Amino acid sequence: MMEVEIRERYINPYTDFGFKKLFGTELNKDLLISFLNALFHGKLEITDLTYLNNEHLGDSRLDRKAVFDVYCQLSDGSRIIVEMQKAEQEYFKDRSIYYSTFPIREQVPQGKWNYRLKDVYTVGILNFVFPDGEYPGDSLIHEVKLKDVEDNHVFYDKLTFVYLEMPKFQKREDELVTMFDKWLFALSNLQRLLERPKALQERIFTRLFEQAEIASFTPTEREEYVASKKEYWDAYSIAETALKKGHAEGHAEGHAEGLAEGLAKGEAKGEAKGRAEERLANARSLKENGVPIDLIAKSLHLTDEELKQLK
Q1: Residue 68 DSSP label
Q2: Which of 1, 15, 50, 166 is the S-S candidate for 228 at Cβ 3.0 to 4.6 Å?
Q3: Which of 277, 283, 291 lies closest to 137, judged by CA?
């Protein structure tokens, strides 16, 4: 087997291989437990978990299947889906809801049943920000439940969706305080680090960096990682092409109705509704993942001011 040259020291956790290597195996479940405990910050206290089959079929062989990145069960029977979402999808929320139905339905026992369900959690680690200004500002963690629209009380507390807008995390190493901060810093910067940061001295991060170091991989693992990186960049290329196409179509429509309206539509279709803060957040994410600044500026149509902020 041909040896593959890899320049970085640690893997990119946003690749399928990288994410599953760190969080998707029995060997490294202590990493997943630590991350989830930091994320839920006392709302859940996880001491152990069991990995479940991450591929699920529907009720018949003709139904569409779901393949989770990580799927596990806690000691009380609660289920947790953890998904790494590399790029924005048009129907991302629909997909997230659809996936949550599988751990609900699999709880149905044979014979009599009183309809009592265990909790189901879906955790989405997003390498993008929500479009349309849905969550403006710096807040990057969003907990979603079924609520009553009249008085805003939680109508059903056993179905929880937690989403992390990772591009919004901008803390420096000297600003890290909580374990949650440290985990977000590690995930955001892992592939660009040359050595373990001094702020990440907890034992769990010793395990993280040991498992993430590419030099310790077998030749097969290195091949799999390279293939996963290619898929990651292919996804970026597809997104970039769609971005350019949407921008061009928006311009074409706009010229028929006036230059100003055309620019607005072009931004709406090609730049996730033209919100400057979202565009800049996505630009930072691409930069952190190794995309050249000139390509980012060209693809996202950054202004001179935004380009200065990115540098």
Answers
A1: -
A2: 15
A3: 277
Q: CA-CA distance, 74 to 80, in Å (whole number)? A: 8
pLDDT at residue 262 in the model: 46
The span from the CA of 181 to the CA of 122, in Å, is 20
d(CA 310, CA 296): 10
Taking alpha carbons only, the member of 135, 123, 127, 105 closest to residue 160 is 123
Rg for the chain (alpha carbons), in Å?
21
- Separation between Cα atoms, residue 298 and residue 242, nearest integer Å: 14
Verdict on whether the full-model pTM lies above 0.85 = no
Which residue type occupies 249?
E
On whether the CB atoms of residues 74 and 49 are closer than 8 A, the answer is yes
Evaluate whether 14 touches 228 at the Cβ level (below 8 Å).
no
Q: Which amino acid is at 22?
A: L
Distance CA 269, CA 70 (A): 32
Question: How far does the chain reach from its first CA to its final CA, in angstroms?
Answer: 40
Residue 7 neighbours by CB distance under 10 Å: 6
d(CA 231, CA 225): 10
Tens of pLDDT, residues 242-289: 555 555 555 445 444 544 454 455 454 444 444 577 777 777 777 776
Rounded CA gap, 90 and 13, in Å? 23
Separation CA 64–CA 185 (nearest Å) = 36
Largest distance between two CA atoms of the chain:
66
Question: What is the spatial distance between Cα 248 and Cα 217, in angstroms, rounded to a whole number?
Answer: 44
The residue ranges of DSSP E strands in 43-135, in sequence order, are: 49-51, 55-56, 66-67, 70-74, 79-85, 120-126
**Which CB contacts under 8 angstroms, 24+ apart, belong to 178-186?**
178/38, 178/41, 179/34, 179/37, 179/38, 180/38, 180/39, 180/41, 182/38, 183/34, 183/35, 183/38, 183/39, 184/140
